[in-house]
Each structure stands twice: as structure tokens, then as C-alpha cells.
Amino acid sequence: MAGKTYVVLMGAPGAGKGTQAKLLEEALSLPQVSTGDLFRSNLKENTELGQLARRYMDAGELVPDEVTVGMVRERLSRPDCATGAILDGFPRTTAQAEALDSLLAEFKGQIGVVPLIDVPAEVLIERLMKRGEIEGRADDNEETIRTRMRVYQEQTAPLLDYYSAKGLLTKVNGEQTVEAVNQDLTAVIKKAA
Ligand code: AMP
What we know:
single chain, alpha/beta, five-stranded parallel beta sheet, globular, binds adenosine monophosphate
């Protein structure tokens, strides 16, 4: 991929975006930029941003767009993103997708492909409940999981049409082993390059 290329990894909560983004980092030599991880590290460090984000995250709601976009702009400006990035968990609203388009125009970069890790909703809820037991993530409890799924359907799923209309969206079957999903994703990304 020439110039700055960004891979936008899409998928509902629990689809495996974080796991796959980490695997792709090395294969593509691009850093994973996860807004969820960035917010969680701000929470841990108790920064002003973390304090602001906490109540949204605990409730399973989205942190306001301007806060999220500001954080992403700062992250994508860092030297390790000089050739692009793998975006995980961003954009999550149409306003964020439009903000990303303007950011990339400014950074003279482009979205290479938008892979969707496709997993049915019932499977996702079960996976998230399990992750909650294993990793103890505060937002992996049943009530918050249901809110996050609803927020995904209402605010994030419309982005699939947004990227599909641009010819960027490619579905990958997320109901396979981690390795098989990784293989499919790598193939989709290489094909787009
Ligand atoms: P994640 O780890 O991607 O599931 O994100 C965990 C939580 O962080 C979400 O439930 C939101 O509260 C917040 N968050 C992560 N990414 C975004 C985003 N792009 N826009 C708004 N809030 C976000």
C-alpha cells in the first residue's frame, strides 16, 4: 500500500477486533489504534480524559464524538503512525467516520479497506459474558453488554452502509478460529493493497 494507509476494522463488541488487530500489527507493520484501549489507559492513569470517559464506558454508552475524535487525532499524529494504522473501535458513529475522512485528507492518507468481522448477535453476547468472567472487564456485565449491543446497532451499524457505498467494506466470517479469521483478514487486506 503506497502512502499512508489505514485499515478500519469493523465488528460488533466481542467480534474479536482487538485480538485480530494485535495479530495484524506485526504482519502489516502498522500500529493498532484502539480507542477502547486508549480510554482504558486514561482511566487507569486517572487523567482528565479518563475521568470524563468513565461514566460513558461504565454505562456502555459512547464517549462524545468531539472527545473521541480529539484523542484519535492526537494518536494518529504520532511518529509510529507515519505510514498509517489499524483502527480498532473507531469510527463508531457517522460523525466520527466523517471526521476521520477529514483527518485523513489533512494527513494525506486513505482508507485501504474496511474489513467487517461478522458474528451473529447471540454468539457475541455469550462471548462477552465469558470475557467478563475471565478478564474482569468492568463493562462486560450483562446489563452493559446489552446496552453496548444496542448502541452498536443504532449508532455503529449504519457505518457499514457508509463504507459499503464507498466500495471499501469486505465481510469476513468471524465464527472461525482466531487463526482462520486472521488468515481471511490478511487475504482481504493484501488484496486491497
Ligand atoms: P471497546 O473496548 O472498543 O469495546 O470500547 C469500550 C468503551 O470505550 C465503549 O463502550 C465506549 O464507552 C468507549 N469507546 C471506545 N471507542 C469509542 C468510540 N469510537 N467512540 C465513543 N466511545 C468509544
